[in-house]
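User: Round two. Same drill as before: sequence, then structure, for each protein.

Assistant: Same drill it is. First protein:
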Amino acid sequence: MKKSVLKLIGLGCLLIGLHSCEEDFLDQQPTEFISETELGEVVNLNPGLVQGSVDGIYTTMFTSGTGGTGGHDDFGQKAYDIFSDMLCSDMALSGSVYGWYRASITEMQATQDFTFTDNFQTWSYYYSQILNANLAMSNLGGPDADPENPEVRALLGQSLASRAHSFFMLAQLYADDYSADQPILPLYDRLTAETLPKSTQAEVYGLIESDLNRAIELLEGYTRGSKAQIDQSVAKGILAYAIAAQRQRWDMVAAYANQARNESGTVLMPPTADTFGILGGFNEVGNPSWMWGVDINENSGVGLVSWWGQVDFFSYSYAAVGDTKVMDEGLYNSMRADDIRRDQFFATPGANYLQPLFKQYDADRVPFGTSTQVKADYVYMRHAEMILLEAEALARLGQDGQARTVLHSLVDNRVVDPSYIDALSGQALIDEIYMQTRWELWGEGKSYFAMKRNQATITRGNNHLSFVGESIAHNDDRLTFEIPQREIQDNPNINDQN
């Protein structure tokens, strides 16, 4: 890892706020020798000592520069949602004035050259989040702690789930395909000043699953204060994705996806004017279909350097002045004529062709925005994606009838005549679910995972600026990042980019 991160890790055991702990405890246990277990006992008495460090994990998810660069494509989790949507080609860059994403991502130069900043930025962001989670866990008594205090249990569960989410993202973005024995990433599961060699995919996914299973246990009975926090249903959703990425145990994928959506308290977004389409929009965390998301407001400090600043025509944005991010034309044309999701995109050929003008937009709906301050919210997970993942898993199990029933619960709310679903089975049903996933979740950072699960080959439409009409396999090396140059220089245990 880069030296600056290693220095932070070395400082990771510094204690936070212990001056407020019980005096007799500190008299018996000098702070310079305090262990994770002893610190966990202190935190059990006052969970507020660590609440801030866990909250910081969530704040990092929408803060600019958290990938270690000053780039206008560096703004937390949604930055990597754009990266992945562009790499799988469902999001096309149809115009380029300022150059963001063009050479590095859409021309796939960064994914072939480890000196490009995007490799470092992505790596740095997720390993920083892993460090943040490990710091929080160390202060909570360690990842194996079993605290009695419900608040502390919830904090530990959230930290474990956050670490698992970051390792899952790294495993997807830095490996061409799933292969259990392939070494891919250093596995920092504890605070350490040592650099580590790459662990295999089986080991990485093993930790991801272990963390999430533990998190699910610890989050039992936890009621979160806001959707920005991970609760048990979100942890189950992440676990469903992690198992599905290994293309096995589809029964578990179906079960966890089903539990995630049904236990979340969310509902499928209906095709009504106040929640969907021309008068709706994916801009409000209070949307009853959002399982995980964050309220972006005047105090969030989010402006031009954001998802909205890159994609939304109705924000103060690059998208409004020529750097247009749109739906791939072939993907748009593959939707049925009676599909309401077609209405989310501007379908008149021209400068704004296939921009998501009616899906994701600032609620003021003023072109180029009236303020540099973003107030539209971020979505990380929603009800519909769990429906689609459950249907996919059931279809892969050969349970076509059940898969069609689950799929109907979504499609019946998206097309006028969904009867064609009843004739689908086998691979044709799996293919339909894959396409439904791409149509439903465009711009939300999930199509890339679906491409890899389905081992799909993508063909770029006419509205891309590069590789128009080219077909690219899911495991093409150009679709995944390289271990960055700085990591290879600073970590003697890694001596190659792959």
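Second protein:
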Amino acid sequence: MPLAQRKDTPAPAPPPRARAKTKFGAAATRTAIPAANGSLYAGRAKIQPQLVHGTYRRIKWMILAVALGIYYLVPFLRWHRGEGEPTQAVLLDLDKGRFYFFSVELWPQDVTYVMGLLILAALILFLKNAVAGRVWCGYLCPQTVWTDLFLAVERLIEGDRRARLKLDAAPWSMEKIALRTMKHSIWLLIAWWTGGAWVLYFADAPTLVGKLATYQAPPAAYVAILTLTATTYLLAGHMREQVCTYMCPWPRIQAALTDEHAYNILYREARGEPRMSAKQATALRAAGQPAGDCVDCFACVTACPAGIDIRDGLQMDCIQCGLCIDACDTVMDRLGRPAGLIGYDTEANRRSRAAGGGTVSRIVRPRTILYATLVAGIGSFMLYSLVTRSFTAFSVLHDRNPLFVTLSDGGIRNGYTIRLSNKRPGERHYALTVEGLAGARIEVVGGTPGDMPVPSDSTQEFRVLLFAPAGLPTDPSIPLTFTLTDPATGESIRAQDHFKAPAP
């Protein structure tokens, strides 16, 4: 039960507490709250976290500002790519099938880079978990960032935890209606702009903003904005910690990937127990008896956005945000006791201290080396592939029916469809040559082999005929190498196919 309720209202008899074991054997205490209808979750109370100040709260504010600044402002960044090219720095152009990221342009054929980025993201997440637990969840996850923003708005309008609890319990009045209306209006405004910013990544941002304001934007844009507005408002404003606990799979995956050397937020039991008031601890220490530093003030519980008690041990609900550390350090500072009763620590350290040993730190170990090596290897390969990739795509498709045509003079003709993709801004002119069949003649329908124009950022198909004089083919299938060269840049690219002829 929250601290404010413990002081302001008579506390009912607490339900029985069941001792459980965490993954590493630490005792954990959980309180079952049975609902009237017998459901485990129907009686779940709304969590109203207390605002705290400290190192981790400042880090979270800075990350929130940077992350939201990037999300909302990046669509308006400009990047010059050349005449006729889009000027938005980051743009996913669904009509043309292009993804622009500053100077990088990806085509649908470059989907391997997207797959590589997803693999890298997963490996980086594994590496973070192996080093510092759920640091992604506590600081960088969009659910955490937007929930922090919504909570900041709620505190600004309704006050801090005690004021919000009092407002929740108060009967409906004009003041309560006004406060709630203002809060939900701002929440909806933030959610609406979140959805609006998302669609700006799919079209020129200033142009789309004008069309949205004058109701000339495509219907899909309005549907996307309404959908993201609803999900942001519900997930960040109402569901909050329930998203992390019940909807997100990462807590369960993380529990299987962590080990005793990963840094997680832990309560240092050896120093904190037995819990008692500051006066009792002073009296016992004066008498030479043991007394813990924890004064059972519940500051860590009321500051937790997930509503858990970190003193019960490592729990799946904990997102490792560090706010309980700030809350506890504030109390320790007021009492004149050293900070760090709750902090980032490892289970190996906890066990070592319990046994009278020293600090055990193994950030560099086989699993972190493996993850770091995979991240560096895959990242380097992708970067090298991106830097050295060709800006021309070239494919050759042999006619299927007929495979060849015998001419009246005894010569053999083969037909091919050549597809060229120009991934650079500006029109390019290519020259085509064929190796593997000496004496053969190339003919480009509607053009010439020495000048095959392809417009900027587009794909062009050419019909190519290859003629072999009578008696020249000596094999029914002769390997050929088609070479495409850009005289302006010297870039060349090759493709393989065959010349078909009747069996001798």
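The first strand starts at residue 17 and ends at 21.

User: Perfect.
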